[in-house]
């Protein structure tokens, strides 16, 4: 079997998700052709998928042999990530970006890895470049938003969320991002409007309750108790799991005064509403690109 045939067969196994077979074939080929870059890359990539220790060594040799190969540098970065060698992975992704400056996916990988390695400014710089290179990339815009949020820069996160929502008006997660960041920045009027918009665009079954909970939270922040009461009553009608019971009891106590039995505390209500938002976010983040 020729080296080319071995590499082609190994690549086919890799593409089909049979990483063990790909790795074995690549190693067999390397026994005869130890400097074949295609086989080195396949051995390294397959090993990384299988979490075999030091699989990056194959890819390090590949980039030594072909230092201008941007794909090999990205694969080296991925392998180093699988080995928790974050600083080295940052260097590999940076090299891939230098060789291919318009590679938005590599810039996003660089940003995520830089942040994970403890360098948020480097991460923000990389993800800004990704957005500049491809303003239509919703994945890059979302990564920018998530990095700002993780870095506790809510004003910039909000600006990114607003731009994302403008780019994709039908994205419920972007609307939720805006609403939550308005709450974080103590803008309950804007938060209420964002949750109201979210209620209109999120057409998933059983999701309406989450938006209404958000509207209630905004009205509680504003101490508009009558409006909060109306929304809480509405929420109980659509809440099949009874998650609004304590919220309603708390709001009723604010409107009509204490009842015979103690109402839930504000802390308990805030915790319940935060849990509702977190559940809503989890439902939308599944299968989405998030930081």
Give structural attributes.
Serine Threonine Protein Phosphatase 5, Tetratricopeptide repeat; single chain
Write structural notes for this entry.
The chain is mainly α and 291 residues long. The chain has a domain at 169-291: Tetratricopeptide repeat domain (Serine Threonine Protein Phosphatase 5, Tetratricopeptide repeat, Alpha Horseshoe), CATH 1.25.40. It has 16 helices and no strands. The chain has helices at 3-15, 19-32, 37-49, 56-65, 70-82, 86-99, 104-116, 120-133, 138-150, 154-167, 172-184, 188-201, 208-222, 225-238, 245-256, 266-285. Helix 1 packs parallel to helix 3, helix 4 packs antiparallel against helix 5 (70-82) and helix 11 (172-184) packs antiparallel against helix 12 (188-201). The longest helix is centred in the last third of the chain and has 20 residues, at 266-285. The protein is elongated, with a radius of gyration of 25 Å.
What is the end-to-end distance? 44 Å
- Report the total helices: 16
* Helical content (DSSP H or I, runs of 4+): over 70%
Number-wise, the strands total 0
| Biggest β-sheet description | none
Segments where pLDDT lies below 50 for 5+ residues? none
Average pLDDT: 93
The fold-level CATH name of the domain at 169-291 is Serine Threonine Protein Phosphatase 5, Tetratricopeptide repeat
By oligomeric state, this entry counts as single chain
Corresponding CATH superfamily of the domain at 169-291: Tetratricopeptide repeat domain
């Amino acid at each position: 079997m020729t080296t080319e045939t071995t590499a082609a067969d190994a690549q086919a196994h890799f593409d089909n998700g049979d990483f063990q077979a790909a790795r074995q074939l690549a190693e067999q080929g390397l026994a005869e052709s130890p400097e074949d870059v295609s086989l080195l890359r396949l051995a390294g990539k397959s090993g990384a998928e299988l979490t075999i220790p030091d699989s990056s060594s194959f890819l390090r040799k590949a980039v030594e042999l072909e230092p201008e190969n941007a794909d090999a540098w990205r694969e080296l970065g991925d392998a180093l990530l699988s080995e928790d060698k974050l600083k080295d992975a940052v260097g590999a992704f940076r090299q891939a970006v230098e060789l291919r400056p318009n590679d938005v996916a590599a810039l996003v990988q660089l940003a995520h890895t830089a942040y994970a390695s403890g360098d948020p400014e480097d991460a923000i710089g990389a993800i800004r470049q990704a957005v500049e290179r491809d303003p239509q990339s919703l994945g890059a815009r979302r990564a920018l938003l998530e990095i700002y949020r993780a870095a506790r820069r809510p004003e910039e996160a909000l600006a990114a969320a607003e731009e994302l929502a403008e780019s994709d008006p039908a994205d419920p997660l972007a609307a939720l991002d805006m609403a939550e960041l308005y709450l974080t920045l103590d803008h309950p009027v804007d938060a209420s409007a964002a949750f109201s918009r979210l209620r209109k665009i999120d057409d998933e079954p059983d999701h309406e309750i989450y938006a209404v909970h958000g509207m209630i939270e905004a009205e509680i922040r504003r101490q508009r108790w009558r409006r909060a009461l109306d929304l809480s009553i509405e929420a109980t009608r659509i809440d099949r799991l009874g998650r609004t019971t304590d919220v309603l009891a708390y709001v009723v106590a604010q409107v009509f005064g204490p009842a015979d039995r103690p109402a839930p505390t504000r802390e308990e209500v805030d915790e319940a509403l935060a849990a509702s938002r977190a559940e809503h976010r989890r439902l939308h983040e599944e299968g989405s690109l998030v930081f």
